[in-house]
Please model this.
Amino acid sequence: MRLVLLGAPGAGKGTQAATLSKHFGVPHIATGDLFRANQQEGTELGLLAKSYMERGLLVPDEVTVRMLLERISRSDCARGYVLDGFPRTVSQAEALAKQGQSIDRAVYVNASTEELMRRLGGRWICRQCQTPYHEVASPPKVAGRCDRCGGELYQRADDQPESIRKRLEVYFSETAPVIDYYRAQDKLVEVNGEQSIEEVGKEMIAAVA
Ligand code: ADP
Ligand code: ADP
Ligand code: ZN
Model:
């Protein structure tokens, strides 16, 4: 099962990718998480990515595609994957197809700009396992600690109003066309992202199965 999750920053891709990954027994691959891991390790790729990410811009396709293709060439992806945050441009989608990685379904999670702003403004992420929380909609059981692994929660530097606005702009101009790319191939399913986390998850699994 090769799945792609599409949607604006804050739509709930990371949250739902965890559910889909568990349901289908395939790994959750998030390019944002891969870049952040590289930053923590201080790699050259991490440094390069940081200069784009802190401005709310996309990391160049060439670098991103190379990193993603390397990741999905590993043995744990032999039976498929859930991609979260990739492809973010039509050129990235074409690179995936050219590699023979024909995806089964692209799931578009739709939410209004107002709701996206609310979600990103209150998002907290686990430093260890990257699980997203929300201070109102999905708080952790113990304040500041991850339910899953006990890791410390933090707010991303790019989840500030100015950076959020830039990311949404970039999303509408560069990533929204990817929705049409998969629609034209009859692979797109759309899910209403403005329901409870559980309801979105159920609708998604029903739409993909
Ligand atoms: P969000 O969860 O808010 O959608 P991500 O964690 O997916 O954000 O991505 C954070 C940042 O990492 C993006 O703003 C961008 O700079 C970079 N990034 C992630 N995925 C890609 C990609 N496929 N292409 C280019 N840049 C990316
Ligand atoms: P993305 O990966 O698309 O950027 P996330 O999964 O990180 O989005 O979710 C963004 C924020 O919104 C997080 O704080 C998350 O806890 C919260 N969130 C996710 N899904 C929902 C939902 N259905 N209702 C309310 N809040 C949600
Ligand atoms: Zn954790």
Q: What stands out?
A: Residues 126, 128-129, 131, 146, 148-149, 151 surround zinc ion (ligand 3) (CB under 6 Å).
